[in-house]
């Protein structure tokens, strides 16, 4: 005779529904536990990626430099760096050297040129664009001077009578801003001709020997700019960044010790100035996300384990007769708990493994755009293994305890009283208290970002506030639904039999119905909250940066282009506009060109549909004064305009406007101003939707002076916004998982009642009800349940997100405040999915009637 334990895996196939529920419950628990660890680590990787994107590519590692470096000491310094670099995992160092201004340089017989001689190791020439000539030993001259002065390849320059190497190439001058490879060398390698730079050209030596021989020939004692750095691959994870930082510090220490031993210890400055701070910020971002999602992750895993405990109770009830027999034959509680593990252990393990694997493979879908650390992947695997171990132990323990109490102690009924007490306990009051506590903490969220801290300090209670609000509403809705179903026996709708039958079926399954309602409401509400807050912060970053800059890029210029003396370059004509700015009366006054403003400024961020009409209105002269658009109106704002302009005549109001924000200000059309009034405007700016590099190149080619410029990418530090978004993307993930659970619970509940539905359906069909009416009855039942969950979840989730988004704003000092994105796409998606699930469940319910056999109906 085969023992039940050996035959348990095969016996489990007799109830495939239990196997599926056990596997899916384990899958979701392990998925959420693994995802929490990976999400936090990926946030650190994404922060590193963001920080490396805004720093020079050679600032990830150590940097050595000194101004006015003695030429005689350069070999000792570079030698020490090269000796120790390989020991710490670094490649060959890149040495950059630039002389001071060499006046009296002669080209083609003219001795009045001013040049700076420079050289960089390795890819220095590769990072320049050669227009003429070759890489033969010699000098490369910038194209601006070469073209203007007709200096060609083969020219032999000299410096105060000392012959210099010949010109072997003409390269394209590096303009400000230079390519990223040169950004750390901007002070030496870039000429800004539009700010009266005294240098005519940066002349690069093609190789180190040519540079050294030239410096020796002219007898130069010092090097104005001396810089040594390493172009290491950008770290992809936080652990790689921390390792690179530590290796950099070790290299700096060894080089300093080496130079100190040679008596040159104070010769150069050595540090990791930029990336050290970047690593610190990335670590804080990872810790913030981890602390934020930790409570939700723990709750999710505990709920998953509780679900497996429910599976154990269901298995116990299904195997009750067999367990009684085995207990009577001498099997103890531990052995019978082991039988449960033998039957359900394999599905639980497989489900957990699939959940952990799915969490890793789908990280790019739900997580931050960063790579997790290898150690985090090991921790995530440990969390999944721990969850599985707890699940299996819990399965055996629940069965063993029930066996011990019922078969050894003879106690069966006492647990029912406890369950009844738990059901009547007002859990919604407890969750409401937690929500209120989170709300009080939320008021102080982000305060530190205004005090110089790049990332707001995290309060986990503040971040759990939205979830507890949704949970409170879900529990309250379920309790009201429970009471309504309890009183539903008073309902009399026999004139509409489909509706009456739907009500009776709901009342006959109050426990599953309220359970599905709670899970569904929590899923939709949590999903709405997570998506709303996450997308709200990203949209806030886009909106704030667009309003602050005024467009994609803002380039301050001088009056010629503002007055029309210099035409807008053809490459920018369709994407740019010129704006003047006046101050002095307390209100900012922008002078705009109505014909081009809407195509060059960030008008899509301005609320209101009649901006074009307002611009047209202020373009018509008014004898009473200056027609204006009033922005951010306050009681203290007066109508006086600066520079003796006529007082403002308000043609319309707007709450926010590009460059002004929500500050008190006025918008004036340049068409109503005289030439003298336009000539008195001290500041002009070009707003353009074109990329910054293209706009700078086009304006410089037109000879436009650009003292300052700013782009949306560099205007704000986006990391505080991203941290909030990454945190609530996990909340959205939790809502999505709960949504899957709610759908499965609804379909499983319909399948569990298959025999009851088949018997009841067969009876009502025999009594004359049409199949179409029976289908309508099931759709009413399932539609009422799903519809209530959708309505309550959407209203609650969207409302909570709308209240929370402005409070999670990490830059409240910058207008406009964060706002909830349009929830209509989310609502439509939820409704479509809900309709599809209801239709599928109704089809399953009616199909059970049509496919039921006579013998099955008799047994039912």
Summarize the SSE layout with pairings.
Blueprint: H1 4-11, H2 16-53, E1 63-70, H3 74-85, E2 94-98, E3 102-107, E4 110-120, E5 130-133, E6 139-142, H4 143-149, E7 158-159, E8 162-163, E9 167-171, H5 186-189, E10 201-205, H6 208-218, E11 222-229, H7 238-261, E12 269-271, H8 273-318, H9 320-328, H10 333-361, H11 363-366, H12 374-408, H13 414-424, H14 427-442, H15 460-486, H16 497-508, H17 510-549, E13 553-557, H18 559-562, E14 576-582, E15 588-592, H19 594-600, H20 611-618, E16 626-631, E17 648-654, E18 665-669, H21 675-679, E19 683-688, H22 692-701, E20 709-711, H23 712-715, H24 719-752, H25 754-766, H26 771-807, H27 824-851, H28 854-859
Helix pairs in contact: 1-10, 2-8, 2-10, 2-12, 2-24, 3-7, 7-8, 8-12, 8-15, 8-24, 10-12, 14-15, 15-17, 15-26, 16-26, 17-24, 17-26, 24-27, 25-27, 26-27
Membrane topology: Multi-pass membrane protein
Protein name: FtsX-like permease family protein
Subcellular location: Cell membrane
């Amino acid at each position: 005779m085969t023992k039940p334990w050996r035959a348990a895996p095969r016996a489990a196939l007799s109830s495939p529904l239990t196997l599926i529920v056990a596997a899916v419950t384990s899958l979701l628990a392990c998925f959420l536990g693994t995802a929490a660890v990976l999400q936090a680590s990926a946030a650190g990787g994404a922060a590193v990626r963001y920080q490396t994107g805004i720093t020079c590519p050679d600032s990830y590692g150590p940097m050595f430099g000194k101004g006015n470096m003695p030429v005689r000491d350069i070999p000792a310094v570079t030698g020490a760096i090269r000796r120790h670099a390989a020991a710490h995992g670094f490649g060959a160092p890149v040495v950059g050297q630039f002389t001071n201004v060499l006046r009296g340089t002669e080209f083609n017989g003219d001795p009045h040129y001013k040049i700076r001689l420079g050289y960089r190791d390795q890819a220095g020439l590769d990072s320049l664009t050669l227009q003429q000539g070759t890489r033969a030993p010699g000098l490369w001259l910038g194209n601006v001077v070469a073209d203007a002065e007709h200096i060609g390849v083969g020219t032999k320059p000299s410096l105060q009578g000392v012959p210099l190497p010949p010109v072997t190439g003409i390269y394209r001058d590096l303009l400000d801003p230079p390519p990223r490879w040169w950004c750390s060398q901007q002070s030496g390698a870039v000429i800004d001709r539009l700010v009266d730079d005294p240098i005519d050209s940066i002349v690069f030596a093609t190789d180190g020997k040519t540079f050294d021989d030239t410096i020796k020939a002219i007898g130069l004692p010092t090097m104005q700019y001396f810089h040594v750095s390493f172009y290491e691959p950008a770290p992809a994870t936080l652990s790689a960044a921390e390792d690179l930082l530590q290796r950099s510090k070790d290299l700096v220490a060894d080089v300093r010790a080496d130079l100190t031993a040679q008596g040159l210890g104070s010769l150069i400055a050595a540090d990791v100035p930029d990336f050290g701070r970047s690593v610190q910020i990335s670590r804080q971002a990872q810790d913030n996300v981890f602390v934020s999602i930790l409570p939700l992750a723990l709750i999710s895993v505990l709920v998953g384990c509780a679900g497996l405990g429910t599976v154990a109770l269901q298995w116990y009830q299904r195997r009750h007769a067999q367990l009684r027999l085995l207990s009577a034959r001498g099997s103890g509680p531990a052995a019978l708990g082991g039988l449960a593990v033998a039957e359900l252990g394999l599905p639980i393990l497989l489900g957990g493994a699939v959940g952990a694997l799915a969490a890793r493979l789908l990280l790019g879908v739900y997580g931050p755009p960063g790579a997790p650390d290898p150690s985090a992947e090991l921790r995530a695997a440990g969390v999944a293994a721990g969850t599985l171990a707890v699940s299996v132990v819990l399965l055996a323990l629940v069965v063993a305890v029930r066996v011990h109490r019922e078969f050894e102690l003879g106690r069966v009924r006492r647990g029912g009283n406890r369950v009844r007490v738990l059901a009547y306990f007002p859990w919604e009051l407890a969750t409401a208290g937690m929500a209120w506590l989170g709300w009080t903490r939320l008021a102080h969220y982000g305060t530190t970002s205004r005090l110089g801290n790049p990332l707001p300090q995290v309060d986990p209670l503040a971040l759990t506030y939205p979830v507890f609000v949704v949970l409170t509403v879900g529990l309250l809705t379920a309790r009201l639904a429970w009471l309504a179903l309890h009183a539903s026996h008073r309902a009399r709708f026999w004139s509409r039999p489909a509706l009456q039958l739907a009500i009776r079926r709901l009342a006959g399954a109050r426990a599953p119905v309220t359970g599905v309602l709670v899970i569904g409401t929590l899923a939709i509400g949590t999903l709405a909250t997570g998506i709303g807050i996450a997308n709200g912060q990203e949209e806030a970053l886009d909106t704030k940066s667009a309003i602050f800059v005024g467009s994609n890029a803002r380039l301050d210029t001088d009056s010629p282009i503002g007055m029309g003396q210099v035409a807008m370059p053809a490459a920018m004509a369709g994407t740019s506009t010129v704006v003047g700015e006046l101050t002095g009366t307390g209100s900012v006054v922008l002078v705009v060109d109505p014909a081009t403003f809407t195509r060059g400024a960030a008008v899509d961020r301005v609320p209101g549909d009649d901006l074009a009409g307002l611009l047209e209105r202020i373009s018509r002269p008014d004898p009473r004064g200056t027609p204006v658009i009033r922005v951010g109106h306050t009681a203290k704002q007066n109508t006086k305009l600066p520079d003796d302009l006529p007082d403002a005549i308000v043609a319309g109001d707007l709450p926010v406007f590009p460059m002004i924000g929500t500050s008190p200000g006025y918008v004036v059309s340049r068409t109503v101003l005289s030439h003298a009034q336009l000539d008195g405007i001290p500041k002009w700016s070009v707003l353009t939707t074109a990329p910054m590099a293209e706009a700078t190149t086009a304006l410089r080619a037109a000879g436009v002076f650009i003292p300052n410029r700013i782009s949306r990418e560099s205007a704000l530090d986006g990391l505080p916004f991203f941290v909030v978004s990454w945190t609530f993307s996990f909340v959205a993930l939790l809502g999505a998982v709960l949504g899957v659970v709610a759908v499965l619970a609804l379909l499983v509940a319909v399948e569990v009642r298959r025999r009851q539905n088949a018997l009841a359906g067969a009876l009502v069909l025999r009594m004359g009800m049409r199949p179409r009416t029976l289908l309508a009855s099931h759709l009413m039942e399932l539609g009422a349940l799903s519809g209530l969950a959708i309505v309550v979840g959407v209203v609650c989730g969207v409302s909570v997100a709308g209240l929370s988004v402005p409070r999670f704003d990490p830059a409240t000092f910058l207008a406009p405040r964060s706002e909830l994105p349009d929830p209509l796409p989310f609502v439509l998606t939820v409704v479509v999915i809900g309709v599809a699930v209801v239709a599928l469940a109704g089809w399953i319910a009616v199909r059970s009637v049509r496919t039921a056999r006579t013998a099955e109906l008799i047994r039912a």
